[in-house]
Design goal:
Helix content: 55-70%
Largest sheet: 4 strands, mixed
Radius of gyration: 33 Å
Strand content: 5-15%
Order of helices and strands: HHEHEHEEHHHHHEEHHH
Length: 372
């Protein structure tokens, strides 16, 4: 036990002294600090609905060509949806001139409304996909305007027309929220890289030990198994310390820098899904995952005689780690359902085969598929 602790303390101190460990820790903490500071720097909070609306300046111009009046009030509907764009009635005879101007000025765009198969169709022209009006948004706005006009023409009341489409709210009955889902993905990625990085450190330490024989200097006549155990425990403790520091610093920055009314994609940012039991499970999964891959990497490091051959020896471990990571982040419900269906079919076929064998043994005959 004394030899294991000696190897453990030496490996841990050696890992802490490395520049890669210090630089990676500082960079990750700075990245977390920067991400948590963005909401306050950008002022991304819920807008004050009690404040009077501020008129936005028009910085873009869009020509609307609808000479047949297929969508009455098209320019007004577009102006309500796109407050930064000025909509000007265009002429179909000057279409070529509009296109030439749009090709030179990214602030210009054009919407041509024509009739195809009895219904209006849109032709949106911009300089490129990054400039001009949003074609999908314009199509949705004009579609709603056209539907309202058609409903009103059919005698539908104005109140019913205003309900198209119906307003709705979305709420989740469970504890899983968008922020909790994103947090889970980030923890999976963080654990994967932590397990991979420190597992690689174990293999590198074992391969280096085979050439330097440092442990034999510190520990006289140490068994190889004790050296491997000490190195795995030392790198694991180092990884657990760094992992815990990152999580604690993230929680501190969240409490200090993230505003209480901050919204992420329209939803409040909440860590209610990350409970104490979740933290314990994260710790357990990290310890178990590291233990598995540390042993596999230690074996890979012990197989090589030169450090240059270490990457080739670790290739099978890398493939296994990459496959398990992909499976963990992808939805595996259809795969699980397919496997269960195959297993049910196999069990049903086996029951039918057993019944057939019992009947054959009873009447003294054999099925044709069993005769070879």
């Amino acid at each position: 036990m004394k030899q294991v602790m000696t190897v453990f303390s030496f490996t841990m101190r050696d890992g802490m002294r490395k520049k890669a460990f210090r630089i990676s820790t500082v960079l990750i903490l700075l990245l977390i600090l920067g991400l948590c500071s963005l909401p306050r720097l950008l002022g991304s909070t819920e807008p004050d609905v009690s404040a009077p609306p501020v008129s936005a300046e028009t910085t873009k111009t869009c020509y609307v060509i609808d000479e047949n009046g297929l969508i009455p009030g098209a320019a007004e509907a577009l102006h309500i949806a796109f407050t930064d764009t000025e909509f000007v009635a265009g002429q179909a005879d000057n279409l070529a001139g509009y296109k030439a101007d749009i090709a030179e000025n990214p602030a210009l765009s054009l919407i041509e409304i024509t009739k195809t198969d009895g219904t209006p169709s849109l032709n949106v022209i911009t300089k490129d996909f990054m400039s001009g009006i949003n074609a999908a948004g314009a199509a949705e706005t004009l579609s709603r305007a056209y539907v309202k006009v058609q409903l009103a023409a059919q005698g539908v009341s104005e109140s019913a027309v205003d309900l198209s489409p119906l307003p709705y709210t979305a709420a989740a009955a469970g504890h899983m929220e968008l922020s909790g889902y994103i947090l889970g993905i980030l923890l999976i990625v963080l654990m994967f890289y932590a397990v991979y990085y420190y597992g690689y450190g174990v293999s590198m330490s074992v391969a280096t030990e085979k050439t330097s024989r440092v442990m034999e200097t510190l520990v006289v006549s140490a068994k190889p198994s004790r050296i491997l155990i000490g190195k795995c425990l030392g790198m694991g403790a180092l990884g657990l310390i760094q992992f815990s520091v990152i999580l604690l610093f993230s929680a501190f920055c969240y409490q200090l820098l993230i505003p209480a009314d901050f919204l992420l994609m329209g939803m409040p940012l909440s860590l209610s899904a990350f409970t104490v039991s979740s933290a314990v499970l994260v710790l357990v999964y990290f310890v178990l995952g590291y233990s598995l891959y540390a042993v596999m990497n230690a074996v890979s490091g012990a197989l090589v005689s030169k450090i240059e051959d270490l990457n080739s020896a670790m290739m099978p471990v890398m493939l296994i780690a990459g496959f398990t990571f992909v499976v963990s982040v992808l939805p595996i419900t259809p795969v699980r359902a397919g496997v269960q269906a195959v297993m049910r079919q196999a069990a049903s076929s086996r029951r039918k085969f057993c019944r057939s064998r019992r009947m054959d043994s009873q009447y003294g005959c054999f099925p044709s598929h069993c005769i070879r």
